[in-house]
Structure formats: structure tokens, C-alpha cells
Amino acid sequence: MLTLEALHARYPAPTFHPLLITEVTRMQNAHFCIAGFDVHAAKMVRPLRPRGVHWIFDEFQDPYFPGQLVNVKPAGTPHGVFPHSNEDLPLQSGMRVLDTLSEPELFAAMNGTWAESIVKLFGCAPVENRYFPEGARCPSIGSIRVPRRGILFQSSSANRLRLRLEDSDRIVYSLPVTCDRLRGLFDPDGGTHGVHAANGWLDKMAPIEPIIVRLGLTRGYAGTSGEFDPKRCYLQVNGLLSRVQLAYE
Fold first, then answer.
1. pLDDT digits (tens, 9 = 90+) for 217-237
2. What is the bridge-based pairing of β-strands 96-100 and 43-48?
3. 15, 18, 113, 210: most buried, per Cβ within 10 A?
4. What is the per-residue pLDDT for 59?
5. pLDDT of residue 50
6. CA-to-CA distance for 175 and 169, rounded, in angstroms?
7. What is d(CA 69, CA 103) in angstroms, rounded to the nearest whole number?
């Protein structure tokens, strides 16, 4: 099994700067945000294309997906605002795939990098259990571990996939799902299988089966009329990791 220790040894610095992709999230206008674990620095980062822009998957760029180990060339220090500047990593160029981990290998590699609850992950409680103000000195990406029985897919009023989550603090959250893979298969708005099939996928696991819930904060949102000051960074579900290899079909 490929482990973080094995990857660290196989791709030594400074010859390599390996990142293990943990999530790919779908944004507007066919843009994507990628987050991954910096194997040598042992921390989460958000690799950005040159000039700090997000990724576009088209005839010039094949899609990236969780479990890929990629080599990067950083371009300098982040220049954005908190909390995103904690993890933003501008790159000189694209990313080259070095290796690929299976879903159970990815779960095992990230099993120990999670926090026990959302409050512990971010250092304080999100406002209304939904957002942090822009400028907050907290992480913008991370994960918690919950048993399978603690999560349930729901549909929003906009017919988009959401996740009901109860963490170890016994706090219940209802968060939008931005994971590209989950949305592509289950998002009702896309005419796919929908919430029933998404929960059927979860039901293939035992209630106590541990799930790593990948979480992230949006960039600051000012509101439709600029009514939010400071801007709000909303909490979202970037992906789910399991030690059980399951088909998303």
C-alpha cells in the first residue's frame, strides 16, 4: 500500500515537490478548485495556476481527481487575504502526475490529518453554523472524521446536493456539496441519480464505518447587493473519503 512515508521516500526533495490531491471542487463557469496534502511540508495547500487562477479542464488540460500524486513548482508566497492565504499555493506552471492512490490508500494516507469536529478544525464555531467572516485567522481547508451514521444527503431548495452532518460535538450542520465527483453522479440539478441514490451509496457501508469529510471555505462573498461587510466565507463539503472501495454508480 502506498503511504505518505513511502511517497516521501520515493519522491525526495528538492527533486520533487509532491502534492497528494484530496479534493476537486466544482465552481461556476466550468472552473475547478483543487486541494491537496503537501507530502514534504505535511500540510494542506491549494495549488493555483499561474497568476492565481483556478483550473479549467478542457482539450488542453485533462481533469485531475482525488488520489493523484502530482509534482508542482511553486511560484512564490500567497498574496490573497485570510483565511485562504493560509493554504493558497501559486504555481509556475501545471502539475505533472507522479502516482495514483486507490480510494482506500487515500483514506489511509489522510487518516490522522483530520480534526475531531468542525469547531476544533477551525478553532472556533462558524457563524450560524454556516460561515466565517473574511479575514478570520483560521484554516480554509481541512477535514473531520465521522461515523457513516452521522451523515445524510439532502436536496436544497435550488435542487442541489447538500450534506447533513453531525460531528463529535453533537452539532448538526447542513452544508452544500461542491465535490465534483459527487455532484456529477448525484446532483439532482444535473439530471443525475439524485439524493436517493446518494444515500443508497452511503448505505452500502456499516453505520459505524468511519468517513473523512473534506471541508473548505469559499472565498469572501459580499452578497447580491454588497450587503455583507466583512464578506462571508461559507463552509462547504469538498468530498468524502472512505476506506471502503465503492463504485459511484
1. 999 999 999 999 999 999 999
2. unpaired
3. 18
4. 82
5. 81
6. 16
7. 13
Output the CA angle 175-177-181, nearest 5 degrees: 160
Q: Which residue has the cell 461559507?
A: 234
Indicate the pLDDT class of residue 33, thresholds 50, 70 and 90.
very high
Q: Are 234 and 172 a contacting pair, CB within 8 Å? A: no
CA angle 95, 101, 104 (to 5 degrees): 145
Residue type (1 letter), 139: P
Buried b (16+ CB within 10 A) or exposed e, 152-191: bbebeeeebbbbebbbbeeeebebbbbbbbbbebbbbeee
What does the block give as the cell for 85? 492565504
Amino acid making up residue 156: S
Residue 140 to residue 217: CA distance in whole angstroms: 5
